[in-house]
UniProtKB/TrEMBL annotation, chain A:
InterPro entries to which the protein is assigned, alphabetical: Globin, Globin-like_sf, Globin/Proto, Hemoglobin_b, Hemoglobin_oxygen_transport
Any GO BP: hydrogen peroxide catabolic process
Membrane-crossing segments per the record: none
Span of domain Globin: 1-145
Tagged with keyword GTP-binding: no
Name of the protein described by the UniProt record: Globin domain-containing protein
One Pfam family per UniProt: Globin
Automatic annotation (TrEMBL), chain B:
Protein name: Globin domain-containing protein
Superkingdom: Eukaryota
Positions of the Globin domain: 3-147
Family of the protein in this entry: Belongs to the globin family.
InterPro entries for the chain: Globin, Globin-like_sf, Globin/Proto, Hemoglobin_b, Hemoglobin_oxygen_transport
Gene Ontology terms, MF aspect: haptoglobin binding; heme binding; hemoglobin alpha binding; metal ion binding; organic acid binding; oxygen binding; oxygen carrier activity; peroxidase activity
Entry's Gene Ontology cellular component terms: blood microparticle; haptoglobin-hemoglobin complex; hemoglobin complex
Keyword Transferase: no
Amino acid sequence: MLTAEEKSSVTALFGKVNVDVVGAEALGRLLVVYPWTQRFFEHFGDLSTADAVMGNPQVKAHGKKVLESFSEGLKHLDDLKGAFAKLSELHCDKLHVDPENFRLLGNVLVVVLARRFGGEFTPELQASFQKVVTGVANALAHRYH
Amino acid sequence: MVHFTAEEKAAITGLWGKVNVEEAGGEALGRLLVVYPWTQRFFDSFGNLSSASAIMGNPKVKAHGKKVLTSFGEAIKNLDNLKGAFAKLSELHCDKLHVDPENFRLLGNVIVIILATHFSREFTPDVQAAWQKLVSGVATALAHKYH
């Protein structure tokens, strides 16, 4: 799926990512930009405005958890389906999350990386990351039935 | 039909005023062709698209990107009637250009990414939300006359 150069450029950029901060920002922005996704997080408390969402401690904690999992995935770019098999079953059987939301979160993550890295987020890096987030979304959807 | 609040309109026009349409247009179209390489099929006549740097430096890509983003700018003056504003372009893309409407969504997402790279401070979650709604609305308007 990714060439050796793509893998190393993705890993190099992601190595500069503060997983806590970027995870929180990605999940927060998902909830603001695609407000229907808030339905999965009703127990998180105040999600009534963009500021409330971005400052919400449960959103931040969960965003960190999600991005840590994504980071693990980056160590298994040759077997994303295997790496995410259990999470795929969880999201289908227990959490009942529509797989389309994985694509939305992937796109939000790309936007967050673009914002944080500016010009360093070259067209080639964007292409590589887009492949990764698509691969992760497909892997998370793979066990759905 | 998509409806924008006064705040959303202000977020959109406020950022748009700072955009260099020529540069951003070239970059948007270039990145579309790099990130989603199958889109290059519509631009076989553009010459060298063999690498990311060839694409980003290609003068025809830059010129066409400017044209596309200038047209997008027209939408921003017609936020209350995107379907009307893009009716003729919708017919053109269906009847003459045969472009799959999914590509409008891809280009819209690329535009959002470019804004994020250029305006890291201003591109707050609310601004991102307003722009995502806009690019969705434009994509829908461009698909509206398809048959």
